[in-house]
Amino acid sequence: MSFVRPGAKNVILRWREALVGAAILGLGVYWSFGVTPGILSWIGYLAVLLGAALFFAGLQKGRSRLGGGGPGVVQVIERRIGYFGPLNGGLVDLDAVTSLNFDPTEHPATWVITHDAGPALHIPVNAENADVLFDVFASLPGLSPGRVASVSRQEGTRPIVLWRRADLQQRIARLH
């Protein structure tokens, strides 16, 4: 038996990192300014910094989280992305990724991951456990988590290129 409404539970789960960051930030402010000076105030200053960082990161992650319930399941193990869907799926090593696109024209919108080892992998944004992709995409060199979060909410008429591997980017630049 659950004492929390499903809608409230979904909101809490979506913004959980930001809520933890806000709690640590509040505790740090209290320790820094509400308690007598001493070692606890220095710990408070550190808690303020940590809480602010967690809060900001949690906001970005919460913005990109679109929930589950969509087709398929995403799994990430040791830098390998796996998508197991009802009609398609596959595995991609993160080191083999050549580009990352967001395609809002598909229903539901999808992440399109192209790689050296085969056909592109199309992962719906609302696939079960798709929120782990935020951290995976943030590890791609030069791709900011804020860009991933903002693009995942967009509606558009064509795919958006979020990231290309550096050597591929240089080859494309030479063609133009």
Would you kindly provide a brief summary of this structure?
The chain is α+β, with helices and mostly antiparallel strands and about 180 residues long. The protein contains six helices and seven strands.
Q: What is the topological layout?
A:
Layout: H1 6-14, H2 16-33, H3 39-64, E1 73-77, E2 80-84, E3 89-93, E4 97-103, E5 110-115, E6 118-124, H4 133-138, H5 145-151, E7 160-164, H6 166-175
Antiparallel strand pairs: 1-2, 2-3, 4-5, 4-7, 5-6
Describe the model.
This protein is α+β, with helices and mostly antiparallel strands. It has 2 domains: 6-64; 73-175, no CATH class. The protein is 43% helix and 23% strand. The protein is built from 6 helices and 7 strands, in the order αααββββββααβα. The chain has helices at residues 6-14, 16-33, 39-64, 133-138, 145-151, 166-175; strands spanning 73-77, 80-84, 89-93, 97-103, 110-115, 118-124, 160-164. It has a 4-stranded antiparallel sheet. A 3-stranded antiparallel sheet has the order 1-2-3, with no helix packed on it. A hairpin with a 2-residue loop joins strand 5 and strand 6 (118-124). It starts with 5 loop residues before the first helix and ends with a helix.
Which residues sit in consecutive blocks of at least 5 with pLDDT less than 50? none
- Helix content bin: 40-55%
Task: Assign an overall shape.
Answer: globular
Annotation field: number of helices: 6
N-to-C order of helices and strands = HHHEEEEEEHHEH
Number of strands: 7
Please list the strands of the largest sheet in the order they lie side by side.
Answer: 6-5-4-7
Strand content: 15-25%
Radius of gyration: 20 Å
Give a quick account of the main beta sheet: strands, pairing sense, barrel closure: 4 strands, antiparallel
